[in-house]
Amino acid sequence: MSNMTKKKxxxxxxxxxxGRSQAVRASSGRTSSGRSSSVKSSSVRPSSVRPSSVRSSSGRSSSGRxxxxxxxxxxxxxxxxxxxAFRKPKKPRLSPLEMLRLHKSILIxxxxxxxxxxxxxxxxxxxxxxxxxxTANVVGNTYYTDEEIQDMVMNGMFAxxxxxxxxxxxxxxxxxxxxxxxxxxxIKSADTIDIRVYEKAxxxxxxxxxxxxxFDREGIIVEGSSELLEGVPVVKGLKFDSVVLYEALxxxxxxxxxxILDLTQLLSKYSLSADQMYFDKGYNVxxxxxxxxxxxxxxxxxxxxxxxxxxxxxxxEGKKGTLHLEDYDENTESVRFEEAS
Length: 341
Known about the structure:
This protein is α/β, with parallel strands linked by helices. Helix content is 30%, strand content 19%. It has three domains: 2-54; 135-199; 204-339, Rossmann fold (3-Layer(aba) Sandwich), CATH 3.40.50. The chain is built from six helices and twelve strands. Strands 7-8-9-10-11-12 form a six-stranded mixed beta sheet, with helices on one face. The N and C termini lie far apart (181 Å). This is Cell division protein FtsQ. Keywords: Cell cycle, Cell division, Cell membrane, Membrane, Transmembrane, Transmembrane helix. The chain crosses the membrane at residues 106-127.
């Protein structure tokens, strides 16, 4: 009987120990065999394994003796900590002295900016008035007038300012202008500039499809225009199949182009301007001045032949016919003029 009593007394303690071990195993998430428990640790509460679960409602065990309270403390619930609201610190009020210093700095800044703007406007006005071009000297132009060349050079907002032109054309020339190789600008003084024109050496031109195609001493077509330039003769009698810009005319004798240029330059030297220049099959040349035909012949003694023209042509004004200079040389005493009937 005593043994039974003892067993009954130890029974609550055994149940309590079993509950404790079960709670420990549940919290670790594993069983005694080492495998993961199917019950999650969060679903097991400490209150389910407390000793109070094996006590009677009167606080006594089944033997009738009072049971001691468990040393296990109750689980505390998480409490939400409420932080105090953040308050923006108030700006300290400026003293009158500090406000005066701040306004003084702003006034100095505004004054400095205004002074810079005024100096800039004054400098611009000085440059525009002091460096304004009043004299523009143009040299080397025959195909364009002085006014046309000046308009080509001085264009834009600051076109008539010599300081601007000195920067614009420093080590630079104007190109891509018809009949002109390049144009250079030299600043002589604050109000004077020199404009030098380098024209293309045009030997002559041919009439092609109602336009004039200009060629140089190598026969290369350098320009095309509907206008006939003064001092450039229209060459006829040359045989060619096609005309292509920037390509040489396809003629049989290429040396004829240098002969044309030499003859054109000789005429210009003696202030003569032929209306036409004609080459026959043997490349003998004929010049036409109004109603006068001048038979030059071959290029032999061509300089001596051209020199005689300024003296002979005035005497033939108003007449119509052919002046024969084919056999003229330095020993010739007279020339023959065959007047047309």
